[in-house]
């Protein structure tokens, strides 16, 4: 029995989410960080194949031969455009080089989408402006820079808030901006009484990297929006394997989304 338990422990995956860190600095000290050049390079090459129609779909730098659609996101895009009775100016915060844009592009008719803007890290912006911008897709260094160019109707945050050093300060800034609609997708939560800071060790078939990752207490996360926003819908992630997430090999994490609309 002892040998069996030892083998079982050895066979546990070494990739995934681990730890309980007291600060972003502590977690960063044992992680590579999201700024690694190999992440951008692999994402760029994958999305160029999608843009050239040599591949169907990209997610997290991985190419797929069959597209998976984020149907809740598409539904709320169409709903918001219908409510506005005009095409939307969309801000995709942390949208990489346009992963979601290319994923749903066939639904972004001129009656639905007037502009799709991405705010990202500096090296992503330079790459995006050089290789991926078109008449609809644009790249900006900050939310304020984007707002100076377009009157944003909807901000999308897909798998991004959990990778910010100070996420609660950022969430407060969202309410201060007063966006009419906020869409959170693939956001990480934990079945614990408070937030948990981990280090994510990425599976090497995606790319070699590790970085700090938050898992939020859902009640505390939503408190940021209780006064100014109404929760119109909550929904499960469309990505297989993200509905339940192991942290230190325990199934206590999960990813889900929320669609929030400003109260009037």
Ranges where pLDDT stays below 50 over 5 or more residues in a row are 1-9
Question: In CATH, what is the homologous superfamily?
Answer: Vaccinia Virus protein VP39
- Evaluate the radius of gyration: 19 Å
How much helical structure, as a percent, in the residues? 25-40%
What does this 3D model show about the protein?
The chain has nine helices and 13 strands. With 264 residues, it is of the alpha/beta class. α8 links the parallel β7 and β8.
Structural key phrases:
264 residues; alpha/beta; Rossmann fold; 8-stranded mixed β-sheet; 3-stranded antiparallel β-sheet; 13 strands; 31% helix; 29% strand; globular; disordered N terminus
Summarize the structure.
By secondary structure, this protein is α/β, with parallel strands linked by helices. It has helices at 2-10, 24-28, 37-51, 71-84, 99-104, 122-131, 143-149, 167-177, 218-223, and strands at residues 16-18, 57-59, 62-64, 88-93, 113-119, 137-140, 154-158, 181-190, 196-201, 210-215, 229-236, 245-247, 250-262. It has a single domain (38-262), classed as Rossmann fold (3-Layer(aba) Sandwich).
């Amino acid at each position: 029995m002892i040998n069996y338990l030892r083998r079982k422990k050895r066979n546990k995956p070494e990739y995934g989410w681990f730890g309980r860190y007291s600060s972003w600095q502590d977690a960063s000290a044992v992680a590579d960080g999201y700024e690694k050049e190999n992440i951008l390079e692999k994402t760029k090459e994958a999305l160029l194949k999608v843009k050239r129609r040599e591949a169907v779909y990209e997610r997290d730098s991985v190419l797929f031969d069959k597209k998976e659609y984020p149907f809740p996101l598409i539904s709320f895009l169409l709903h918001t455009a219908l409510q506005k009775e005009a095409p939307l100016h969309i801000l995709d915060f942390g949208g990489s080089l346009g992963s979601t844009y290319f994923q749903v592009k066939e639904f972004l008719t001129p009656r639905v989408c007037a502009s799709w803007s991405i705010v990202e890290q500096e090296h992503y912006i330079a790459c995006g402006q050089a290789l991926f911008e078109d008449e609809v897709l644009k790249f900006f260094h900050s939310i304020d820079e984007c707002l100076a160019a377009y009157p944003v109707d909807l901000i999308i945050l897909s798998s991004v808030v959990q990778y910010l050093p100070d996420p609660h300060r950022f969430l407060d800034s969202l309410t201060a901006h007063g966006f009419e609609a906020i869409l959170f997708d693939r956001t990480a939560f934990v079945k614990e009484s408070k937030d948990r800071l981990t280090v994510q060790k990425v599976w090497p078939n995606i790319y070699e990297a590790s970085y700090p990752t938050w898992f939020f207490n859902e009640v505390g996360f939503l408190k940021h929006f209780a006064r100014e926003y109404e929760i119109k819908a909550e929904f499960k992630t469309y990505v297989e394997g993200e509905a339940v997430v192991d942290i230190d090999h325990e199934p206590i994490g999960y990813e889900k989304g929320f669609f929030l609309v400003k109260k009037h």
